[in-house]
Helicase-like protein (Klugiella xanthotipulae), 744 residues
Amino acid sequence: MHEYNPESIMPKNTKKGGFKAAKNYVPKDGRTGGSHPGSRSAGHRGFTAGGEGVKKARWTTEDRDARRERTDRFPRDESRGERPNRPAYGRDDNRGGNPRGGFARDDRPARPERGGYGASRGKDFTPRERTDRFDRSDRPTGGYNRDERGPRTGGYNRDDRGPRTGGYNRDDRGARPERFNGFNRDGARPERDGYNRDDRGPRTGGYNRDGGRPDAARADRSAPRTENRGESTGRRYFDDRGSERNFRDYSDRAERPARTGGYNRDDRGARPERSTGFTRDDRGARPERGGYNRDDRGPRTGGYNRDDRGARPARSFDRDDRGARGGSDSKFYPNRDEKPRFTPEEDVVLERLEAQSTLAADVEGVSWQDLGLGDNIARALGELGAPSPFPIQAATIPDVIAGRDVLGRGRTGSGKTIAFGAPLVEKLMENGGGKKRELGRKPRALILAPTRELALQIDRTVQPIARSVGLFTTQIYGGVPQGRQVGALQRGVDIIVGTPGRIEDLIEQRRLDLSEVTITVLDEADHMCDLGFLEPVQRILNRTQQGGQKLLFSATLDKGVAMLVDEFLVDPSVREVAGEDQASGTIDHRVLLVDRNDKDLIIEQLADREGKTLIFSRTRAYAERMADQLEDAGIPAVSLHGDLNQARRTRNLEKLTKGRVNVLVATDVAARGIHVDDIDLVIQADPPDEYKTYMHRSGRTGRAGRTGTVLTIIPRSRQRRTKELLDRAEITADFTPFFPGDTL
DNA sequence: AAAAAAT
């Protein structure tokens, strides 16, 4: 996306003459577009030409006309060839006039103002309007779909699925076509398979993305096909992501099938060996995995994901190749074939992992200063609500200050952020001395996290600590304009907190130089070693100073980090707190055996309560749907998943944090690290596939010694697998049949 | 399946 905020445009986008058309843009402080951040610039989707965020509940004809006219004044659009289309298209047969009217969701109402002026991209409009009616098949039509939905859900989609395969979500979909029943979805479906599929093959090709998409796409189908097809699949469903998404869909898709698509998949295929190789041998976690692959595989034939592939021209090819391929394209993942080589070494690591425990009792009466932290830092910690160290902090801080590489395992909510954040600042003070405030100084510490929300949260804790001694931090993560981040780097920061993608991006742009980074922290380190994260993380670590100190933390630190440990750490000290494991916590675990047909209703009933509730779903689409359903039932709820744009993600999480809603429905993006006070109930609407995921999800409650309840909803058919999973997590839970109307 | 960059 283009950013036109002053910090970034100056250096970077000067050539865009077309931009001057946005007369109202006043590059003063970077926030001129309107009252909210999304509207600050003309190139931005949410830009409001007049600068004022006028709320409109609906578009009147005049509004629309006016808008169209204004739009026409923007040369830029023409140059893109986009605008011309828009009028014709943006409107509305389908969409009926009221762009967003339907939307109860909090986010939505806001949109009109914003959209007020996306002006520049044709895309901006479409989605919005569409939203109402078609997109969300679920929601929009409110009365309508919904009714259908009722039955559907209850009776149908879901349930069908249940019975149907047993095999599951995934498979169902593949199978679904026959079923027609559902409406929004299914009605559309037939085409989809026969037909769309073809489209989709190419289109979807991609992988990750597609995951979310299908549903969206599916929903669209009910709308006139021609139109949907073109531009907005993703968009109208998750309105916010607007143009970037679309863009992405296309381009990615275009290449992905061949490339990444080919890849991820292949990798997965390959994965078993690898993991077996080392990641989780002991745990037996694999089986589930297997479980997972298996599902795909079963259906594969008719399967869903696979179909995409099927459609993919390249596919049969890819597949066949795969065996032999061994890396034909392997510039990206050159070592894939060599991975299985780690086998014996991990055991060593495992031993180390279990070695040094600190007794909680030994920590009594210890102060921050006793651990080696300075007074300023101790004071800052006190202000953060941590007057004295928790056990994991007492266990790791001295080692970090001593300059050792550290692997720290502390159960969820035990205070790991401070355990690495505070001593990291202390170390920078010690080493850094002289060049503290130098303009444009290079960062000397890096903290990597797997999600943006977590990076943001870590920064919120580390920043005050750093500030207390005059050091600066900045967040470097995606989904937001990079201008501010780059500006901060240019001014000079000491500590970077971020996610891998944007960090790599800025490195490639030569805007970020990690060569002076002497301390690197990987939070949720085991997850950072999972497929998809490992390689970027390796590349990033390779950009940091050779021999720099490395700190790896996670509640589920295990052999999975062996690769990184072998490659980057030297004689690490492994720390944990004796007797503090997930099972010894303050969380009550229960498994509810439910009939698939009752699932949604039961979740609704369980979530209808006073305290804060976090619901986990396996897919983005289900999270979205569930949030809608709860809202419809009069239970204020928001969602959090990767199909939302970052602004909404942040806002929705904040709504829960601030108590504006009590229910958040999330994918596993919220499984790790996210801290919200007082979540006393976690509902797993879909059971996790890995025991580690179970531990992290459930760890969103029962934090810092509080009590909490975790309910895992499963069909009876999943009982055994769930028991095995709980065994691995060393958690005991009652399994109880549960029906609508039951209480706990 | 999800997450992580953007154009």
Observations:
- The longest helix of chain A spans residues 257-279.
- Residues 1-352 of chain A have pLDDT under 50 and may be disordered.
